[in-house]
Amino acid sequence: MRHKELKAWTGGVAHLLPLAAGRPSLLGLSQWLQQVCAVDNFVLFVYEGNHRPLDLFDSFPADIRHVYVEDYQAGPYLLDPFYLACTRHQAPGLWRLRQFAPDHFYLGEYYQTYYQQTGLTEEIAFFIDLADGATAVLSLMRKTSSPAYSRDEMQLLECARPVVEQVVREAWELRRAQPRPAQDLDYQIREAFDQFGAQLLTPREQEIVQLLLRGHSSASVAEQLDISPGTVKIHRKNIYAKLGIGSQSELLGLFIRELAGRDAAGGMLAAG
To answer: Which residue spans adopt a coiled-coil conformation according to this UniProt entry (predicted)?
Structure first.
C-alpha cells in the first residue's frame, strides 16, 4: 500500500468509528475494507448455541441473497467449515476457508451441491468472540472471476482487525438488546443432523455419516476416528445398504430431504 493510499485508509477510520452502531457502521466497515483490497460480497453471521446462524449484515443483491443466506440457514451451515470451526472454539483472527476444510471438501457433496452455487473462488473471514459464548464470522468473498487473496492483502487485513472487532461487537451489543427467542426449527435442524439415521444405523455408523456429509474422505474419516481405512469402507458399505442408497451424493440428498420434510413428517430417519 502506497503512502497516499495508507493515508486515505487510516483517515477513513475517523469517519467510520463515529457511525451509529449496527447497519450504518457495518456498511461503513465494508466500504473501508474495500480500500484495502477488492471484495465481491460481505456477510456477517453470528453463531450462537443451537440457533440457526443470524445474518447480522450482508451486501448481497436481492436476486442471489437466498442462496447465500436463506438456503444456508435452512441446514447447509451444519456442514460449513467456518461453522464447524466455531463449534471447536476457533481462536479469533483472520482465516481462510481452506484452512478448515477437510481433505475432500472441494470434491465433496456439500461443495458440489450447495457451495458451488455461490460461484466463489475464495472466502476468508474474521472470527470474533462475542458475549455469552457467541462467535461472529465476517466473511469476505471473492467470485471465480477474481484472484485469491494475496499474502500482502491478508497482512493488511490483519492490521484492520482491531477496528473490525470493535465495529462488530458494537453491532452485536445493539442486536442482543433485542431478545432472541428460541425457535423450535433451530433446534430441529441441529437434531436432524445429530440424529440422522438413528433408527437404522449404529452410533459408529452415525459418526461416519456425519464426517462424510462434511466432506471427509474415507482416509480422513479413519484418521478422525482412529480406525483403519478398510474398516471405514466396510462401514460405508453397510451404511449405504441400510439407507437404501449407493453413493455419497445420495447420502447428502437424503439428508437434505430429511431437513425439508422434518416439519411435516416429524423426521423419517431421526429417532422419535
So the answer is: none
Contacts of 187 (CB under 8 A, 6+ apart): 50
Tell me: do 33 and 167 sit in the same domain: yes
Residues 80 and 138 placed together within one structural domain of the fold: yes
CA atoms within 13 A on the CB side of 270: 21
**CB atoms closer than 10 angstroms to residue 99:** 10
With vertex at residue 66, the alpha carbon angle to CA 65 and CA 67, rounded to the nearest 5 degrees, is 90
Say whether both 139 and 79 belong to one domain: yes
pTM: 0.78
List the alpha helices (DSSP H) in 177-247. 184-194, 203-213, 218-225, 229-243
Domain final residue pick, 176, 201, 230: 176
Virtual CA dihedral for 31, 33, 36, 40, nearest 10 degrees?
-70
4 within some domain: no
Residue type, 244: G
Supply 129's cell numbers.
Answer: 468472540
Domain boundary among 134, 160, 176: 176
Q: List, in sequence order, the alpha helices (H) in 34-183.
A: 65, 71-73, 81-87, 109, 151-159, 161-176
- What 3-state class would DSSP assign to 114? helix
Question: What's the CA dihedral at 21, 23, 28, 31 to 10 degrees?
Answer: 150
**CB-based contacts of 120: which residues, under 8 Å, 6+ apart?**
141, 142, 143, 144
Q: How far apart are CA 94 and CA 90, in angstroms?
A: 11
Which tens digits make up the pLDDT trace of 216-260?
Answer: 888 888 988 999 989 999 999 999 999 998 877 788 778 877 776
CATH number, domain with residue 153: 3.30.450.80
Listed in sequence order, the DSSP H helices in 88-160 are 109, 151-159
